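for the writeup, i need someone to sanity check this before i put it in the appendix. the sequnce is what the collaborator sent (i think, or maybe the updated version? ugh). structure was predicted straight from it, no edits. if anything looks off just tell me and ill rerun, i have time this weekend
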Amino acid sequence: MTKPFTLYGMRGSLYTGKVRAYMRYNQVPFKEVKAGSDHFRHVVAKEVGRWIIPVIETPDGDYVQDGSVILDYFEDNGYSQTSIYPSDPRLKVIAHLFELFGGEGLLRPAMHYRWNFDETNLEFLKVAFEDVIPDGLDAKTYEEFFLNSSGKMRKAAMFFGVTPEVQPTVESAYQEFLGLFEAHMKERPFLLGGHPTIGDYGLFSPLYAHLARDPAPLHLMQTTAPRVHRWTERMNMSERYVDGTAIKAGDDLFGFDTIPDTLRALMRFVAEDYLPEITAHIAFTNNWLAENPDPATAYDPKSRFLGATTFEWRGHQISSIVGPYRNLLLQRVTDSFDGLSEAHKGDVQALFGAVGLNGILDLRSPHRVVRKDYLEVWE
């Protein structure tokens, strides 16, 4: 029997959920080990250079870290029963757009609905955090560990701009998104048609681990966007059916020339909700790079952050932390676009322009971000 992969992570981890869903859907044999285990803390975290999840250990004993990198590893090694990358290169740009937006643009509602509803969520979260807290602690010590770990995450919510005065707008924006995604899910099982793509996995990260598991947002999703909730279930299972109807491997995605209005509406939402933020982040990054012409020595990759920037978001001036990981995901969008033929570039520019997103295709930094020794570093 082939030795299974090992997934190191957490039940309630946003990025672990993305990898677990891929492995389940594609029937990759694996066992899951919590990140609070002695082996992860003393062996795996030391090997990858920091405590970070998810990490997979291959049957050969190699480690792969970061959700998108892990999915690419599986894709490149033939584990995808249907490719997570559309064969139409124009659709691939759209898929990467939602990978970026899901992984980074939905962090505000993900953090808000987890940490600002203690009356509903707190007891559930105390159990969920068992995965990242060492075994064998007495009740008092466990409570201290939980308060310390969760306290860091509560601060992170503020770092993403979830301040008390902004919270009502975070809720209304997220509910608007749920309504748009619910309408899109009415006619198809996945974001781009018959099977999940990298765009689905990007969206799944926050929409499952935080927003379809924690009690407060779970109730909101089930009662206002039941098709979105069903999509989170569909993404997280190996069975090939949709509410009783079998899905054949290789079912087509829709064509670029038949993009539904519901997807265009979701893209308009991304333009309004996330384009100002990513634009401000790249501007901040480029200013930082101008002041630090040798970024490899000026930046500690284990810190992950360069600073914070302020931008206007839905009538508020808010701040959020800036780090090169967003550059890395944005590069996947722009690299896909740059690789198109001139005719296909025109098609994508026309679509992105029509939904207010054309500016995202022009966002660049003078230095690229690459992955080296499990870290994001400046090229």
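The two ends are 41 Å apart (CA to CA). The first helix runs from residue 14 to 25.
thx in advance!!
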